[in-house]
Design goal:
The chain is of the alpha/beta class. Helices cover 30% and strands 32% of the residues. Helix 2 packs across helix 3.
């Protein structure tokens, strides 16, 4: 004879409620979006150290205006290029500040090392000096159109007489450095080297104008 054990109604209710909770939790976990990775932040830094060369008292004072950037390169987003004329951005990697803003102090340090100027000051338009340097970032991008990929940095610079506002000299400086890896960090390392190369060339250009 088969004995059938009947589950009490109260216990049945608890079991049904528990099953419904499990189903609801499973459904909610399936709908919940995956956690968004935290962005990584990178900087442009000076790779050269040393005490600035002391300039003679007769040397001019250079005012460096805060650098500008061309459209598309004026944010903290790290740009890469796979096709000509098409700018793309790494999803989870950014500069700690727009490159133009990070470039100002690096410019001052690089020009100071030449000893060609009595003082080098990063200042807004109201500051006065003998000469003024205006700069614009034309591009700073990680290019994946070749292997290995490379980072290209292009900077346009104008040396201006601060009293007459006459442009004394101008030049466009460009540097391309191969990336050590095909990812944002490899590009950041290459970007720092490319920026340093351009700053050294620009500093030499400015120093030669004072001879």
């Amino acid at each position: 004879m088969k004995v059938i054990h009947k589950i009490p109604a109260a216990r049945q209710g608890r079991l049904v409620a528990a099953a419904l909770c499990l189903i609801t939790l499973s459904a909610c976990s399936g709908l919940r979006p995956a956690a968004t990775p935290q962005p990584a932040f990178y900087s442009l830094d000076s790779t050269r150290a040393g005490v600035p060369t002391v300039a003679p008292m007769a040397a001019p004072t250079l005012i460096i205006n805060p650098p500008h950037a061309a459209a598309g390169f004026d944010s903290s987003r790290i740009i890469y290029v796979r096709e000509n004329h098409k700018l793309e951005y790494f999803a989870h990697s950014e500069w700690v500040d727009p490159p133009a803003r990070m470039l100002g102090p690096l410019l001052v340090a690089a020009v100071e090392r030449t000893g060609a100027f009595r003082s080098v000051v990063l200042a807004p338009g109201a500051a006065a000096g003998d000469l003024r340097l205006d700069t614009e970032i034309i591009r700073l991008q990680h290019e994946f159109q070749s292997s290995p990929s490379r980072v290209r940095f292009t900077l346009r610079a104008y040396l201006v007489d601060d009293k007459t506002r006459r442009v004394l000299a101008w030049r466009e400086f460009d540097s391309a450095v191969a990336a050590t890896s095909e990812d944002p960090y490899g590009g950041v390392l290459a970007a720092n080297l490319a920026v340093q190369a351009v700053l050294e060339n620009l500093s030499q250009f400015l120093a030669e104008r004072q001879k």
